[in-house]
Recover the amino acids of this structure.
């Protein structure tokens, strides 16, 4: 007998020593039903080797338990941390980072106005000596800034994102251009992370996110829907609340990791050089002989995950490898549904309400010859019995075609049982 971590039994049996009934019950007197699939990503940081994880990309990063930015090897799962708390398994779609020279501010593509760049001035969020320093020159009564222009597509949403750190100057004014001259702007205090109204530009305080990381790093992001093709990011140094002042030739702030992401979500950092980068999509699939934990006649699941209200977000998809036969949990613009399809026809659609981005959810579901039941946030939703599809694979965090990724902070936990759990059991499970 072997036991995988986390708790996946391969052969043999598990005995509860405190059981009052060695066959059916535990110490509490309630039935003991061990899961046939147990994936605790948030605590175990492990993907069962019956699953094939795919991401053909060299440039996908994540935050470690030490709050460092780290690169994941191709086809290696990423277990992301937020404020040193693991949010589970990341399953991201392909996305484009359209700017070049994300860390090399000395490159000619970065315009320096009454400012210079000192390369490798301090340790960056990834632990390397690659964080640049923006240094003001000695010009009096004027602004000191750097900017990066990038061609964008009008009508699409982009995320501006950068990491800043205090040096001699303790605040910066950031401008996120809309592609046609206008810009959202915000002042960020690099000591406290506080946001305040800019001295010029459209006030972007309400749409800008500032996240604190260790060693004084501030991750700053802002979504902008472009109305033109001339994207531009600008950082102005500030002194005593002013963005026009007498420079001293030595003072500045630290800057690293600028990304302009063609998406509505601030994905993990990607380092770019002379070319833009499009990342590879991620998939986690169990099929073939490895798909040995499923019962075609009855099955139950527990899924703990963070929500995503943008686009189509798949939490799990049982299928035969096609869209014709499946049991799939997805959110479309936040509207969460469990759908059962057989032979291309949708036999059941359980509407479960609306989820929000970055909010934690615990969902328990069961299907058998009697009915299809789902519990979310303590609310039970039931559908009458339907014909169940023949299932041969499970996609976690994406649909059967490997698209419509979960695309949230993470899938925390996923468990499966080869029985149909009762409504009472589902309510207890979803409340844990």
């Amino acid at each position: 007998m072997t036991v995988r971590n986390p708790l996946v039994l391969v052969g043999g049996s598990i005995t509860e020593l405190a059981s009052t009934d060695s066959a059916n019950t535990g110490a509490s007197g309630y039935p003991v039903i061990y899961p046939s699939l147990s994936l605790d990503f948030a605590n175990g940081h492990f993907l069962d080797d019956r699953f094939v994880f795919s991401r053909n990309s060299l440039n996908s990063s994540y935050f470690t338990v030490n709050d460092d930015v780290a690169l994941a090897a191709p086809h290696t799962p990423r277990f992301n941390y937020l404020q040193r708390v693991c949010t589970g398994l990341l399953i991201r779609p392909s996305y484009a980072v359209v700017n070049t020279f994300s860390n090399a501010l000395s490159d000619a593509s970065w315009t320096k106005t009454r400012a210079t760049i000192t390369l490798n001035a301090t340790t960056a969020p990834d632990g390397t000596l690659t964080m640049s320093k923006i240094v003001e020159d000695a010009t009096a009564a004027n602004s000191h800034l750097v900017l990066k222009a990038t061609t964008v597509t009008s009508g699409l949403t982009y995320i501006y994102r950068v990491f800043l750190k205090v040096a001699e100057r303790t605040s910066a004014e950031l401008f996120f251009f809309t592609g046609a001259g206008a810009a959202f702007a915000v002042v960020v205090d690099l000591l406290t992370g506080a946001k305040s109204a800019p001295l010029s530009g459209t006030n972007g305080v309400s749409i800008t996110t500032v996240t604190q990381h260790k060693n004084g790093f501030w991750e700053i992001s802002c979504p902008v829907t472009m109305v033109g093709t001339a994207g531009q990011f600008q950082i102005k140094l500030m002194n005593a609340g002013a963005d026009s002042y007498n420079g001293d030739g030595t003072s500045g702030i630290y800057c690293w990791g600028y990304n302009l992401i063609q998406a509505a979500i601030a994905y993990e950092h990607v380092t770019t050089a002379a070319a833009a980068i499009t990342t590879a999509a991620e998939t986690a699939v169990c099929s073939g002989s490895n798909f040995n934990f499923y019962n075609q006649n009855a099955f139950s699941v527990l899924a703990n995950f963070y929500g995503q209200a943008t686009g189509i977000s798949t939490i799990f998809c049982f299928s035969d490898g096609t869209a014709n036969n499946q049991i799939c949990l997805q959110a479309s613009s936040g509207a969460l549904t469990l759908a059962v399809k057989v032979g291309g026809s949708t036999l059941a659609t359980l509407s479960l309400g609306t989820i929000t981005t970055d909010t934690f959810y615990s969902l328990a579901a069961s299907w058998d010859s009697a009915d299809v039941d789902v519990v979310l946030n303590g609310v039970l939703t039931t559908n009458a019995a339907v014909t169940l599809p023949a299932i041969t694979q499970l996609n976690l965090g994406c649909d059967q075609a490997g698209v419509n990724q979960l695309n949230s902070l993470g899938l925390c936990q996923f468990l499966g049982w080869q029985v149909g759990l009762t409504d009472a059991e589902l309510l207890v499970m979803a409340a844990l």
Remarks:
- The chain has a mean pLDDT of 92.
- The CA atoms of residues 30 and 278 lie 51 Å apart.
- The two ends are 29 Å apart (CA to CA).
